[in-house]
Amino acid sequence: MTIGSYQLDSNIIMAPMSGCTDLPFRLIAREEGASLCFFEMIDCNSLTHNSERTIKSMLQTNAQDRPIAAQLVGADPGAMVEGAKMLLGQISVPFIDINAACPVNKVVKKKAGAYLMQKPSILSKIIKKLSEAIKLPVTVKLRIGFEKYDKEALIKLVKKCEAAGAAAIFIHGRTAAQLYQSAVNYGAIKVVKQSVGIPVFGSGNVMSAELAKKMIDLTGCDGIMVARGGLGNPFIYKEIEHFFKTGKLLPDVGFETRKAVLKRHLKYINEYSRIRNKVGLMRKVAIWYLKKFHGAAHWRDQVNRTDKYEDMIRLVEAVG
């Protein structure tokens, strides 16, 4: 499958997630089977204002961290183009995604993210100007609606995105108002797939290989975008690939493997992370993994009392 001129190795893609898909997260996911990954969502204004955090932390990568794509969020076509050019001055990516799906209040208040679904003319202008300016494929991440799902409005929107030059659509099967709480509307994703001639990737509640297969079967979409299903579960990419190819589920990786991968993830945070509160990030990551462990509530409490990397490792080793 291709996105524009870019040939994908897999149709299973890691979603960009703010505060989650940093370099340590991506390296662990790749070691456990992920292929194409994304940086965290990047505010185009942080790039144009030469934000040190954006350039040094959010664009942090290394030779093992390939292939890597970028997603920009913003409201102004000119600022998005300028931000994309600054990004490409720092790092080479196969394509750039436009975020028109983020439902978070602080993003929507800036008339960015999911807000753009209410302004199809602005969104299509961003796609068109970006496609013309950077000479790379430009994709767009959408939800099925802002406040509610309107089939005809969604069809018009995705057709407008395609006409403006979008090379693929990533579609989350909930409205912005639903956040992550309601059931995924597979029918709406199917409508998107049937309305355009470009690749469509389904997103939302892909928490297992079975749910990934359900997404494909019920929508006819070309690929899957894994988001929260990968938190504390980097094995999901390999599990989905195996299930798609064989129709059989891989056995659970087991308790000791989960512990070993968590320790490695914490090690990468300690080595690579450039944020000030590394221990805070370690706690968050450890809690993701520990949800799968017996006595998770107890271990979560212990993690939140730990304030050193070495103590965190000892705690994980003690989990039993």
Descriptive overview:
The protein is of the alpha/beta class. The protein folds into two domains: about 1-245, Aldolase class I (TIM Barrel, Alpha-Beta Barrel), CATH 3.20.20.70; about 255-320. It is built from 14 helices and eleven strands. The chain has helices at about 25-30, 45-50, 50-60, 75-90, 105-110, 120-135, 150-165, 185-195, 210-220, 235-245, 255-270, 280-290, 295-305, 310-320, and strands at about 1-5, 5, 10-15, 35-40, 40-45, 70-75, 95-100, 140-145, 170, 200-205, 225. Strands 3, 4, 5, 6, 7, 8, 9, 10 and 11 form a nine-stranded parallel β-sheet that branches. A two-stranded antiparallel sheet has the order 1-2. Helix 9 (about 210-220) links the parallel strand 10 (about 200-205) and strand 11. Helix 6 runs parallel beside helix 7 and helix 7 packs across helix 8. The longest helix is centred in the last third of the chain and has 18 residues, at about 255-270. Belongs to the dus family. Keywords: Flavoprotein, FMN, NADP, Nucleotide-binding, Oxidoreductase, RNA-binding, tRNA processing, tRNA-binding. GO terms for molecular function: flavin adenine dinucleotide binding; tRNA binding; tRNA dihydrouridine synthase activity.
**CATH second-level architecture of the largest domain:** Alpha-Beta Barrel
Number of strands: 11
**N- to C-terminal distance:** 43 Å
Fourth-tier CATH superfamily name of the largest domain: Aldolase class I
Number of helical segments with 4 or more residues: 14
The CATH class designation of the largest domain is Alpha Beta
Helical content stands at 40-55%
Give me the oligomer status: single chain
Q: What is the CA-based Rg, rounded?
A: 19 Å
Give the mean pLDDT. Answer: 96
Kindly name the structural category.
alpha/beta
Total count of domains: 2
CATH topology of the largest domain: TIM Barrel
The largest pleated sheet is described as: 9 strands, parallel
Low-pLDDT stretches:
none
Q: N-to-C SSE series?
A: EEEHEEHHEHEHHEHEHEHEHHHHH
Approximately what portion of the residues adopt beta-strand conformation?
Answer: 5-15%
What's the overall geometry? globular
